[in-house]
Amino acid sequence: MESAGPSPALRLAWRRLAQAPFVLAIVVVGAFLLLEAAPGDAVDAYVASLGGDAGFVHDLRTRWGLDRSAPTRFLLYLAGLATGDFGWSVAFGRPVLDVILERLPVTLALAAAATALAFALGTGLGILAGARPGGPLDRLLSALALLLNAVPSFWLGLLLGLLFAVRLRWLPLAGIETIGVHYTGLARLLDTARHLVLPTLTLGLVYAALYLRLVRAGMVEAWRSDFVRAARAKGIARRRLVLRHVARNALLPVVTMLGLQSATLIGGSVVVESVFAVPGLGRLAAEAVTQRDLPLLLGIVIVAASLVLIVNLVVDLLYARLDPRVELGHRSP
Amino acid sequence: MSPALARFARDRAALVAAFLLLGLALAAAAAPLLWPVDPDAVGGPPLLRPFLDPAHPLGTDRLGRDVLARLLHGARLSLTVAVAAAAASSVLGAAVGLAAGLVGGRIDDLLMRITDAFQTVPGFLLALAFVSVFGPDARSVVLAIAASAWTGPARLIRAEIVALRGRDFVLAAIVAGLPRRDVALRVLLPNALPPVVAYAAVSVASAVLIEAALSFLGLADPNRASWGAMIAEGRAVLVSEPWLSILPGLALLSTVLAVNLVGEGLNEALAPRRARP
Q1: Top mean-pLDDT range of A68-72, A145-149, A329-333, B235-239
Q2: The domain that contains A124 carries what CATH number?
């Protein structure tokens, strides 16, 4: 065996890391352009939220540099972001970053739980479906995946809520903790977890369908390959063949998909958090739109993009560790 | 195209889905003739259940508006917005992908980083940002959806162009002295298009869902009947009258399912697995 430097996957990961600042810079430029395109500026927003007369408006505009040219305004915006100043939230009357950081943990918990559920359920069912492509179980699971893939998440959420919270009364319908009861410590954590079951289920089921289809497709492909045929010819037990040879090769793309889906997952949390009144980043984004709070919304966009970049870098590194290929059999991902 | 068409026709699920979509599109287009009831008019008692009154076959909503008429007009909005968004994103994506693949070098790098940036921002957040800057009318919803959906076709076209660039028939066209523009538009583009066509079907499906989600959140035009808004309106009486939310949801589910099936059929028909080396 020869080892010829870093693997292609690792080199790709390093290249992505080097590109990340440029990508983020483009996102920031885009956010600035949208901010400029919108009617009204940060001072209008501030005054709308806290009040102030014409003299105050003029002073503030000068102080914040909003009377300068567009390039200067952009540099000021950039300098603000660099020092953690994401602007002023009209809706909350507080700095944008404070509001975002307050709402972020809930969404991270929800996204992590939904990803774990989608990954476990999706790959598990995908392996079952791909074990015998064309068999009755495969047909059933593939049909289920098609349905879940097409279901609007907010509608699924409403139906799940109707079933499990209203009819069966197993779970709380909305919010993040039981109102009027002041739990502490572990009891509080469990209470929050119970509140997150339905949102997690809603978000997780939709994405599980994706992993199911991906794993199944990978396994169908793997069944046709020479090494599986060879393993078969050697008379390896079917269970071992399915798990060790066929499924294993179908799991690598799932890792990439975990990264790619992180952006979609944050988008999905906007809708699901709104359905279940979860006070997270997603619902905050919807609130920002209805309250015409553009600095807040664009702050969320930048924070979300940074998160997606980080998740994708971690996934790239993980992939490089998992990918057995070194130089030969290189395939662009 | 005809062998591809034959392959598509052999996929029974895709064929059934295609007819279903065609039926829906026709019903949506001919809604004023088929069921000439004003979707916004209060024409009956409120909260009439489905299948009870032939004047309102699918019942009425909380305000007494006809559910069937609202569903049909919702289909008009949903399909128009989705098809327009998919078309816009395909054209924009194809242009960017073609430019990146043909020019190469720094321009390619820049265009691909811009594509990365757009893929890094969650699509639905970007849609929210566009709607809040440009207003909630149908045109900005189309723009909002296309703003994030163009990256897929851009990457596809670029990858195809890069793969095709060195192929013999392309080199032959260049050697034969065909002008660069003709090589790009007449030789490369048509050969790079099939995957984009299949992808367009997928983006119609996601556009339907995004439009529905925007109107569910009350962020699209409030004055037009739409499936997402119907679900949101039905939510207030979800426990006692669940069908008001269930019916538009089923309409959404079956439309997206049908579009996905057609997309898969197209994908198989247009890009048959190449023989393995």
Answers
A1: A145-149
A2: 1.10.3720.10
Residue A158 has pLDDT above 90, yes or no: yes
Please tell me the pTM assigned to this model: 0.88
Q: Cβ–Cβ of B125/A301 closer than 8 Å?
A: yes
Tokens describing residue B263: 């997309």
Count of CA atoms in the C-beta half-sphere (13 A) of A327: 6
The closest CB to that of A26, out of B117, B242, B246, belongs to B117
Alpha helices in chain B (DSSP H): 2-10, 12-29, 31-34, 67-103, 105-120, 123-134, 138-149, 151-165, 168-175, 180-182, 189-216, 227-235, 243-270
Q: Which value does ipTM take for this structure?
A: 0.88
Same domain? For A211 and A254 the reply is: yes
- Indicate the range of A129-133, A173-177, A299-303, B101-105 predicted with least confidence: A173-177
- Domain with A60, as residue range(s), is 8-95
Domain stop point among A55, A78, A95: A95
Same domain, A122 and A208: yes
Residue A329 within a domain? no
Give me the residues of chain B with pLDDT under 70, please.
1, 271-277
Distance from CA of A3 to the nearest CA of B (A): 26
From B31's Cα to the closest Cα of chain A, the distance in A is 24
CB atoms B121 and A22 under 8 Å: no
Domains of chain B: total: 1
Q: Which residues of B touch A34 (CB under 8 A)?
A: 129-130, 133
Amino acid identity of residue A304, one-letter, is A
Nearest chain A alpha carbon to B273: A221
Q: Among the three residues A69, A95, A121, which one is the final residue of a domain in this structure?
A: A95
* pLDDT of the residue at B37: 84
Burial of A236 (0-12, 13-18, 19+ CB in 10 A): middle
Q: Does B257 reach chain A within 8 Å, measured CB to CB? A: yes
Report for A41-45, A244-248, B63-67, B227-231: range of highest mean pLDDT: B227-231
Could you give the 3-state DSSP secondary structure of residue A179?
A: coil
Q: In angstroms, what separates the C-alpha of A48 from chain B's closest C-alpha? A: 17
Q: Is B162 on the interface with A (CB under 8 A)?
A: no
Show the domain range for B64: 3-270
Give A282-312 pLDDT, tens digit per residue: 999 999 988 888 889 999 999 999 999 999 9
